[in-house]
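Narrative progress, year one. The postdoctoral researcher (J.K.) led the effort to move from monomer predictions toward full complexes, under supervision of the PI. The following entry was the first complex the group processed end to end, covering 883 residues in total.
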Amino acid sequence: MVKTHLAKHHIRCSDNPTDLFANSRDLWPKTTLELSKGQLPSKPELVVWPQNKDQLKKVVSLCVKQQRIMMPYGAGSGVCGALTGREDSVVIDTKCMNRVLSIDADTKTACIESGALGQRVEDRLNRAGWTMGHSPSSIMCSTIGGYLAARSAGQFSSKYGVFDDMVAGATAICPSGEMQMGSHDPFDNPRNLAVFSGSEGGLGIASSITINIHRLAEKRWFSAYAFPNVESAWSAAKLILQSNLYPLALRIYDPIDSKLSSKESGNNFIKSLAGQLLKNPSLRSLLLRLPLSTPRLVNAIANRLNPRCLMILGFEGSRDKVAHDVSIATTHLKDAENLGESKGMIWYQNRHKVSYKLAPLFMAGGFADTMEVAAPWSQLKVLNRNVRKAIGEKALVMAHYSHAYREGCSIYFSFASKGSLKRYESLWANALDAAINSGGVVTHHHGVGQLKSEAATKQMGHALRLWWDVKDKWDPNDLMNPNRPFQRTTPQPQNRQLQRVDSTIISVSKEDRLARVHPKAAPKAITTGLAHHGLELKHPINTPPLEWILSQKRRELSGISPLLFGVQGRFKDGAVATICTTPRTAVGPDLRWELLEKTAVDWVELPVELLDSQS
Amino acid sequence: MKQMEACVYCPKLCRHVCPVAVSTNLEKATPTAMVTGVWAAKKGLISLEQGLEFANLCAECGACEKHCAIDQPVSKWLKDFREEFATEQMELPTIEGDAKWVAMITDERDWSKPLATQWMQPIARCRIKNEFGRDGFLSRNHLKKHLSLVREWGQNRHFITTDDQTLKTLLKSGLQATHLKSFLSDCDWDLVECGQTKAGQTDLISCCGATLRHRLPEIAQEVADAFMSNKQDILFCANGNCAAHLRESGHRVVDCIDRLMENQCQKQ
């Protein structure tokens, strides 16, 4: 029926089994593991390719009339199962909407259709002298719409921010109609764009997105440093970032990752021999099976290796700016051995090749996956230890620390184990629990999908009421990718101690450069209160904090330093919701603006500086 | 089969260089999906017909292989699968005339007579039908099925062809063959190099999709249109199959035969 109607409007669609098969999976390792065991995902009923916004509107309208479930599909490279096939669904493949609609040198923005592949957009911008600044390892196989849907982050996030920070506006087609958001909205209301970002197809489908763009830099510099251990590398990273520097990249590899990737110097003969042996697929599979079957032993041995680890540091900008930033950064690297610029460039030139490393593990009968959590600096050590322990019980594990900011950092765990679905599921459940209990966010940039839905629901707690309010308005019949990213369950109360204090300064963290303040406190009182702690607000305010935040448009303070704040609010029935986005989070949409508008705010968390710090 | 799994489990890292995937925007036309389809068919998870559908989408340009960091021979696998399960029969073409020099005619333009006039000697003529029964080019399938017959058929002849693939097939058979472009006088043209991208311009489509023109005409049209959207209006194409395909798709193409008709052909 849907197909017949679409044909009348000359909208391309197909129920050919090969199209249904190809559009039924994303890159969730669980479905990959199932596929390796001969289990195919459920197939949709139809795949549709709208060519432009008008066709997209017709498709959505038709599906709403016929009450068909809709699933958006970009390049299908999500790793959390947001797009795993559903029976009786209509997949709306956005890739025919792939044009760069405009590049505006005055506003430094580009408007791009949501189905455009990231690499092709970047190539197009580069030819005109611009860059997105967004360089995820999936750039060759992901779309602009997907970045917004999952609140993606790229390898240059320390300088250019996460994708949320880059988006100025968007237009989306939802069951309730067309939504113009951010700079596409004449009123530039921050709430709609915030709540659409990270909704993973649960509210609608973006047709076009306007992003901030940047002139290609005159100079790009990379170098590599070796530290005696991870903790000293973290300390150096914190000092660099809290000096108000914005490195293009700042990545720390744990001792195992440093050695395995041949980034650290080692025995070249052994590496060369291993390389030759591992070229043979059958031999490679055989050699991989042993460590996959004995992860605890291998992890224990690995933990006793030399703790020396690697940092990759990079800057870009004008020649003078890069020289200035490097000179400041190197004052914080006194504990490190300088391994030279060529090692840094090697990382840069090969940074996307890491994605080739997953396949051999599946071919050996195991599975490989990654987990990206994040926390403020003060929680990082605990988060690292607890999640590593939870994963290490059943899988080989290593980690790198990237997407680093003033306030904290992401930890990117890579792990592999025997190919058992039961093991896969229990490992993830334990690791996500450990992340929540250690004060981290369960996803920094991969998104929620099916994989983290339960954990994300738990982490968001009562804040999800706001999501369901929006969902009920924008998608009243729950047709847009139902139950993703969140399932309709009663939220569990959060485990944290919930503060309700009437003082001006509720808490401070010098290490994280964050302070929680009363939302209606006078600016002078805040200044005085923070000064007692040797701190001041990073962004001076002239009205009480809540009023000040609400007066900011999303683009204010954007570019390199987006508006960053956390919030705790109380609903009328006394239920409390807390959303802390530090250092960044992709746990579903950004509901802070909803929380500010619809609850009685207990406190807001704002970035702070040391008093009299060099800027 | 085992090595193929590296594609099945890959995050589709080559999709942005595949001309078919980029031109059509079909998920099934990514090299990853094509190989996954063939792999699934070989494992019995989907039917062989569906596997063949996936394999048929490949334009054999090799762009994915050039891009792949682990050297997966994607187009070879897909071609082998097609050849394993394809059922078309190909017959050897007939040579008309006794002359030693034979012009391989692949469309409605019979250039054997103009060539004979310019060279002042008789030129024989050979019209090729491909496995789809249409004017085409001598392919590897001819060679595979009829090698000894091809050698016997072409003995004591010297073939002139307007297509690189036909030239390769003839030379591999041990026959004498020359591309018509070798006889053309110099002229300025934009030579289309199929299967190659210009450095730093990865958004250009690297292949016109000619090998798809009879297998999947609609897909081939989309690839041709995307290919030409980045090229100049008029171009010279030394590959007869590509020239024929682009011309049939409605684009302006000048090829060796057009140059011949302008009396540019000198026997060397």
